[in-house]
Design brief:
By secondary structure, this protein is α/β, with parallel strands linked by helices. It is built from 9 helices and 12 strands.
């Protein structure tokens, strides 16, 4: 079964960016593209009916939006196999459900119902936190496919998720760009100026450990011909990765699954970069 790349569509400018990126991702992988519009229009429209077709206004609008999105995808990537789905479901539920049979989901940063004061729309955040496959959220400015930036992989304290490493390597290889693996480290706290660190280890040791974590994370799952740059940086992990995103084409972070009622949980770093990164962010789930 050839799993599709899925794009969440709602008619907003952000979702049209998602269509463009998803079309590019599908073409790179030789995969089909699936455009999904999900909304509980019956809840919001009630008995309001478009008289000429006998359907809720929201459903009529959804099909118009999907038609425009499908045409846009074909114009961007002629020959791409495109399917569409209009679902009478909450967007979060519909897109998470679609992710179980997708290789990738692409979303805009904020949709048609987004509140200007919010840094990231609730749908994008919820899907990134619960999807069964990698999710790309389009932070930053629209990019040109002719000039893709490097792929940045964030390596966490406990090491990079193998799934995130594989995804980042695949993205870099497909686009012909370098992979930059970044590991943040923190200088040990001091009791007072001139005193020894509370941990008893010098800052140099912290940096060496960060470099070792990078090497361990990248021991396998990398193509032999992929250009890989390893870099450590002092500071909070979120701040280091946000800084790295400023001239990148994609920032990749892993998210480990936790057992329990709510499934996947995003850590503080993943949550932070989704709100503040200057380039698209890929959240890659790691099975328990």
């Amino acid at each position: 079964m050839d799993l599709p790349v899925v794009a969440g569509v709602d008619g907003s400018e952000e979702s049209l960016r998602a269509v463009d990126r998803a079309a590019d991702e599908a073409a790179l992988r030789g995969a089909p593209l699936r455009l999904v519009y999900a909304s509980l229009w019956e809840r919001y429209e009630g008995s309001l009916i478009a008289q000429e077709v006998g359907k809720p206004v929201e459903e009529v609008m959804a099909r118009d939006v999907m038609g425009a999105a499908e045409r846009r995808a074909h114009q961007r990537r002629p020959g791409l196999v495109v399917t569409t789905a209009v679902l009478a479901e909450e967007p979060e539920f519909g897109l998470v459900n679609e992710s179980s049979l997708a290789r990738l989901v692409v979303l805009g940063c904020r949709g048609r119902s987004g509140v200007a004061e919010l840094l990231l729309g609730s749908v994008s955040l919820s899907v990134a936190a619960h999807a069964h496959c990698p999710v790309i959220v389009l932070r930053g400015r629209p990019e040109e496919p002719a000039a893709p930036g490097r792929v940045v992989l964030g390596v966490a304290e406990k090491g990079a998720c193998p799934a995130a490493v594989r995804f980042a390597a695949e993205e870099a290889a497909l686009r012909g760009v370098p992979l930059e693996a970044v590991r943040a480290w923190r200088r040990p706290a001091h009791t007072a100026a001139g005193h020894q660190p509370l941990s008893g280890r010098p800052a140099l040791t912290q940096e060496e450990e960060a470099a070792g974590a990078l090497e361990e994370a990248l021991r396998k799952d990398l193509p032999d011909d992929l250009r890989v740059h390893r870099r450590t940086a002092e500071g909070p992990a979120r701040d280091v990765l946000v800084a790295a995103s400023r001239d990148a084409g994609l920032l990749v972070v892993g998210a480990r699954r936790r057992t329990g009622r709510f499934g996947l949980r995003l850590g503080r770093v993943a949550h932070g970069v989704l709100h503040h990164a200057d380039c698209p962010v890929a959240v890659v789930p790691e099975p328990a």
